[in-house]
Amino acid sequence: MAPMNIGEIIEISGAGSQILVDAQRLNELSQDSDPSVAMAGQVGSQVKVKLGNRWLLASVRTQRMDMNHKGLIVAQIDFLGEGEEEKLTGKIYNFRRGVTRYPVPGSAVYATTSADLKQIYASDGRANIQIGKVYPTNDIRGALYVDAMLGKHFALLGSTGTGKSTSAALILHRICDLAPEGHIVMVDPHGEYSAAFKTNGALYDVNNLALPYWMMNFEEHCEVFLTSEGQDRTTDADILSRCLLAARSKNRLAQSIKKLTVDSPIPYLMSDLLAQIQDAMGKLDKSNSNAPFMRLKGKIEEIKADPRYGFMFSGMLVGDTMADFISKIFRLPSEGKPISIIDVSGIPSDITSTVVAVLSRLVFDYAIWSRNEPQRPVLLVCEEAHRYIPSSEHEHSVVRDVLSRIAKEGRKYGVSLGLITQRPSDLAEGVLSQCGTIISMRLNNDRDQAFVRAAMPEGARGFLDAIPALRNRECIVCGEGVSIPIRVSFDDLEAKRRPASDDPSFTELWNETGGEDQILERVVDRWRNQGR
Fold this sequence. Notes:
The protein is of the alpha/beta class. 34% of the residues lie in helices and 21% in strands. The strands form two sheets. An eleven-stranded mixed beta sheet has the order 9-8-18-17-16-10-15-14-11-13-12. Strand 4 (54-65) and strand 5 (72-85) form a beta hairpin. Helix 7 (230-249) crosses helix 8 and helix 8 runs antiparallel to helix 9. It starts with a strand and ends with a helix.
């Protein structure tokens, strides 16, 4: 079939070129049975330009009427890539991102067909997962190249209610299906994802996480045990450092370590740490204040006695279980369950960020210390990422530091970071730009849209304008994980694989009644027992 001419190029520039399009021709094509042809020339659609034996593909970013010539439209375009022309059929093949040579003004512009797009979006043989249908076609599958996406981190963004959790579950399920012996750790702050990964994931919460407190490094100990600010905090930290090192050195494992430091993950008894603090306090001159020691001792005893912290500070967690803990959390071996869901919703809020910091740092430290071993890359997925990597720099945060470091250096060591957030503008500056693949669902906030626009590559600008108008479970994908930016409508996920994130139907649930006494009795019981 001969290509359908819709206009010509009138300007070429590095920042974005312009084409002149016949409005009547676009109206005629809008009735075409091929949805790609029917979309020709519209904002967000693709057009093609012939250059020698190559086809260049461009995305339409804006449209405006030509004031000098009625019936003509001036449109801005961004070039996406190029492919070679098959001589007999005129089809595009061997498509790749980037343009080696630009056309000249006056070159004809043609509508792309679904057959063209099928060739352009066709997998180039790399490992990929299919996530949905490419807009505006009915049958072209949108695929993500897994190695490229995970190798340079990814971010999934979208306002509340756009289907973000279900879309995240879909992507992770497809990755698990592709690599059933993989290693994925997901931090789940709302307890949504346990329902989605019952069959192919290991599920952990306060009841079975058993995170040993002695695996914290010194900075994490400070975040949990120190309550003071300013100069007092420095004094308290100095005392904790000396006493913690002494407590660690009491373990027989410490005898075989040449350079024992306060950060070394050596088991110690909480009673030993308290004894060291008491001992140091006993050696004080009368002129010195014992307030720092009492502050520290009081906080440690409070945490030790509080059953809410039992998942981490239990006396049962003193044994050297480091290898076992890392094995179960990182899925080494996977045994067909490549993802571990860490439900932190039941963890006391004042310690949640420290728990996430410990888990994230363990992923990074494991990758560093296993460099001489057969590599086992780990994907760390962080839901509600803006909680842990906030843009505010006034508060020092251990979890922010470790996740920022993974974003900057993780790929060198085989650690991939997946960030899921509804507020990208609240993320620490620079973290989003470290994500090589951005999957953006609808964002209602102007500030969030501007933030994503700044993080996305130039060629995706035409797609970015569609972000506020996206439907639920629809997204724009650009970056390393796709050959060119695409707009995709996500596949439906089977009910048993969906997260428990559906919004309640007030009208339906308010019409149900009966059994309230029993409900309240059970809820109060769980409330008092903290879910146990």
